[in-house]
Write a structure and sequence with these properties.
Mean pLDDT: 89
Order of helices and strands: HHHHHHHHH
Number of strands: 0
Low-confidence stretches: 122-127
Number of helices: 9
Helix content: over 70%
Length: 208
């Protein structure tokens, strides 16, 4: 029986996602310069010719991943600013983050890849540079949102008295360190509790 258009679209979407997952894995392990489309296709289990039906170039594929990260960061920033709450949005984000680390879903490699982008900044190539610049802007937006959240909570006695920018830096450093530790230890990784991670910012656990 021939496949329906819906089945074709579903198969194409599934293959595209395999390509993206393979690219994340390889970019994370080898760096951008150490990966080509042939290697990504092999990792995804498809032919080299097939991969070009989904992404015309390595730059396009990389930009797609970077754009996804930028979109996610901006959504996170909104979750911190589009509410009067302090503790609940913070705890909710950390709970999801720790859940992603605990499950073998590729999230750890994605976090590490984006940390590579933050560390390296904009590299040669105007198209790639634009995507990375946008991701760096999104990262600054979410950092600013956390600073705002800390300052909002301070007036209620919920967040620690250290400078908000310093606390935000320590918070994101903690998350990055957890991702690196999970990658290094694998299944031996022991995830901290939500309260342990949010303790970087919060005076005590509460639901205010």
């Amino acid at each position: 029986m021939p496949r329906t258009p819906e089945q074709h679209r579903a198969m194409r979407a599934a293959t595209r996602e395999r390509v993206r997952t393979a690219a994340i894995r390889l970019f994370c392990r080898r760096g951008y310069a150490g990966v080509d489309m042939r290697a990504i296709a092999a990792e995804a289990g498809i032919s080299t010719g097939s991969i070009y039906r989904h992404f015309a170039t390595k730059d396009e594929l990389y930009d797609d991943l970077v754009a996804e990260a930028a979109t996610g960061l901006r959504a996170l920033a909104r979750s911190f600013t589009d509410t009067d709450l302090v503790v609940e949005p913070l705890r909710g984000f950390v709970e999801v983050f720790l859940s992603d680390l605990s499950r073998d879903t590729g999230a750890v490699e994605f976090y590490l890849l984006m940390n590579q982008v933050f560390a390296s900044g904009v590299e040669a190539g105007p198209e790639r540079g634009a995507a990375v610049e946008d991701l760096l802007r999104a990262h600054r937006e979410v950092t600013g949102a956390v600073v705002t959240l800390i300052e909002r909570g301070r007036g209620r006695g919920l967040t620690r008295p250290a400078p908000a920018a310093e606390l935000a830096t320590c918070f994101f450093a903690t998350l990055g360190g957890l991702a690196m530790t999970r990658s290094a230890l694998g299944e031996a990784f022991v995830a901290p509790s939500v309260a342990t991670v949010t303790g970087t910012l919060l005076v005590e656990e509460t639901t205010v």
